[in-house]
Design brief:
Blueprint lengths: L1 E5 L6 H12 L3 E5 L5 E3 L6 E4 L2 E3 L4 E4 L6 H13 L3 E2 L3 H8 L1 H10 L7 E2 L7 H7 L5 E5 L8 E4 L2 H13 L4 E5 L7 E8 L2 E9 L14 E4 L4 H14 L3 E9 L2 E8 L5 H7 L3 H12 L12
Parallel strand pairs: 1-2, 1-6, 6-7
Antiparallel strand pairs: 3-4, 4-5, 8-11, 9-10, 9-11, 12-13, 12-15, 13-14, 15-16
Helix pairs in contact: 1-9, 2-3
């Protein structure tokens, strides 16, 4: 097979591991910087140009689209879909999962456990918004934030009102969520491929920090998850339409609650914590499912 990996940096651990796993299985693989792709939109036959040449003949692509370039990255993925190329995660599913508000609304509609979450526009509603999520402490999240950036823990009501006021002053869109105290600065990352959790780890925030992201100094260890947590992770990925996803779960007093569904989950932390060849499992999935034109969206939506 000829596999394209859409990544801006071929030296990243996840990109390198996917290249190794594909080559180990005898596939031809190419790393493509999606920001350097340019597309022929008007043509009856859609095409993608790269380095002055047309990209063609790919059986599958693996999108590794950064959150800051979601709009252009998903446009490139959509163009591949229109050309009949199988995408590990489709453009619509990536866009859906990147929109924090939309993703929570979709998960809520299907009955997935979530932290109590509020969203409002008018500053006149701040007091009632904080009451809605149970009052301080609360977590205030920018809709565009990733890897723990743009996430603030407001421990008092005055602090919460100040953070909300500051975000509104920047014309930023944000969510206000209950703070799940019983999680104690830890969360569970479930790595889903297809309809199975293939690996899971518990991430623990460093002392004095509530965000457990490994990029922010958190640590990770292997963990055995419950059947309910496993089911929650698989259902969440399916609701987003993602074939591969990192589903982040908190253990609350009322069961597992999902805080995020990541469409480009990193491989370094999960492989180090579990010792599993997750990159190889991703290539195995592509081998079993990649067929020309096998895409639900075909560029629509």
């Amino acid at each position: 097979m000829k596999i394209g990996i859409l990544s801006r940096n071929r030296k990243l651990y996840s990109t390198t591991r996917l290249v190794q796993a594909a080559q180990k299985r005898g596939h031809q693989v190419r790393v493509i910087n999606h920001l350097r792709c340019y597309m022929n939109i008007a043509s009856f036959k859609p095409s993608i140009q790269y380095d002055g040449k047309q990209l063609e003949g790919f059986d599958a692509i693996i999108p590794r689209i950064g959150a800051s370039v979601t709009f252009y990255g998903t446009a490139v993925v959509r163009q591949f879909e229109m050309m009949g190329t199988f995408s590990l995660n489709e453009s619509v599913a990536i866009s859906r999962s990147r929109d924090k508000l939309r993703s929570l609304q979709l998960l809520s509609r299907k009955g997935i456990g979530l932290p109590v979450t509020g969203f409002a526009h008018s500053p006149d509603d701040t007091e009632d918004l904080l009451n809605l999520v149970g009052g301080a402490p609360v977590v205030v999240k920018l809709l565009e934030g990733t890897q723990g950036k743009g996430v603030v823990l407001a421990e008092t009501r005055n602090a919460a009102e100040s953070v909300v006021e500051a975000f509104r002053g920047l014309n930023a869109n944000f969510l206000v969520q209950e703070f799940v105290k019983e999680a104690r600065g830890s969360d569970i990352r479930c790595f889903v491929i297809g309809e199975k959790v293939v690996a899971s780890m518990m991430r623990q925030a460093e002392e004095g920090e509530f965000r457990s992201n490994l990029h922010r100094g958190g640590t990770a260890k292997l963990i055995k998850i419950s059947p309910e947590e496993r089911s929650t992770a698989v259902r969440s990925a399916k609701i987003m339409g993602l074939n591969v996803a990192g589903v982040d779960i908190l253990r609350s007093n009322h069961g597992p609650v999902v805080v995020e569904v990541n469409s480009s989950p990193g491989l370094e932390g999960i492989e180090a914590a579990t010792g599993k060849d997750v990159a190889g499992m991703i290539i195995d999935y592509i081998e079993r499912h990649a067929k020309s034109g096998k895409t639900k969206t075909k560029g629509r939506g």
